[in-house]
Amino acid sequence: MLGTSIIAFEGIDGSGKTVQMNLLARALKKRGMRVDTISFPVYGSFFGREIGNYLTNAQGVAASDVDSKSMALWFAMDRYLAFRELDLGDTDALLINRYVLSNAVYQSIRERDLDGPDILGFVMDLEYGRLDLPQPDAIIYLDVNIEEAGANVLRKGYRAYAGNARDVYESQAGMQRRARAKYREYAALFENVFLIPCMDENGMKPEREIAIQVEEALLKHNIF
């Protein structure tokens, strides 16, 4: 992976991560760069299928009822398996939809975890330290309010792991509010997390305007 820049896109469910990842991929390809993209969880993989079952309560156990470290391990192993199979030898930039930071966020803000310790240190040690996953050069955090994000989730339509319904994390407005607050908290802790404000007084900014903000943040910090 030597020479491959890694950019992760983060945000609450429905914040536009896939859209912005694809817009950046297109922009980088126009510059002649070789770009790969990947979204986590990989629902077609062994670990991804099990995560999907937890997120939809398909087998009688919901993700929100599993202890935080155990749930974090499922997401971490999904990434570990994916990177074992990735060949980035000819890749200039790898763009990731949800990465390690999301694991720390969502396993810290569920109802059952509110009185427990923050899991950030555990997740970072697990994924970067023990599993040796590559650390991103930049993390783009798309900051969107929960009302707009919730409407975007409903517009997604059919998804293989959840059908037309929201998953157990997406369906809890309180959890999404806490996730946004936790993302903003973590964004202040790391120099490589760039907060992109996606809302203005009129609501959600146009996709292209947000994309320009993303590119400007990466250029400003000499990522490309």
Summarize the structure in words.
The chain is an alpha/beta fold and about 220 residues long. The chain has one domain: 3-Layer(aba) Sandwich (Rossmann fold), CATH 3.40.50.300. A hairpin with a 2-residue loop joins strand 6 and strand 7 (about 205). It has helices at about 15-30, 45-55, 70-85, 100-105, 120-130, 145-155, 175-185, 205-220; strands spanning about 5-10, 35-40, 95, 140-145, 195, 200, 205. The model has no long low-confidence stretch (mean pLDDT about 90).
Specify the biggest β-sheet: 5 strands, parallel
Gross morphology:
globular
User: Architecture, CATH level 2?
Assistant: 3-Layer(aba) Sandwich
Mean pLDDT: 90
Helix run count: 8
CATH level-4 homologous superfamily: P-loop containing nucleotide triphosphate hydrolases
How much helix is in the residues? 40-55%
CATH level 1 class label: Alpha Beta
Give the number of DSSP strands.
7
Number of separate structural domains: 1
Radius of gyration: 17 Å
What is this structure's SSE topology?
Layout: E1 5-10, H1 17-30, E2 35-39, H2 46-56, H3 68-85, E3 93-97, H4 100-106, H5 120-130, E4 138-143, H6 146-154, H7 173-187, E5 193-197, E6 199-200, E7 203-204, H8 207-220
Parallel strand pairs: 1-3, 1-4, 2-3, 4-5
Antiparallel strand pairs: 6-7
Helix pairs in contact: 1-8, 2-3, 3-5, 4-5, 4-7
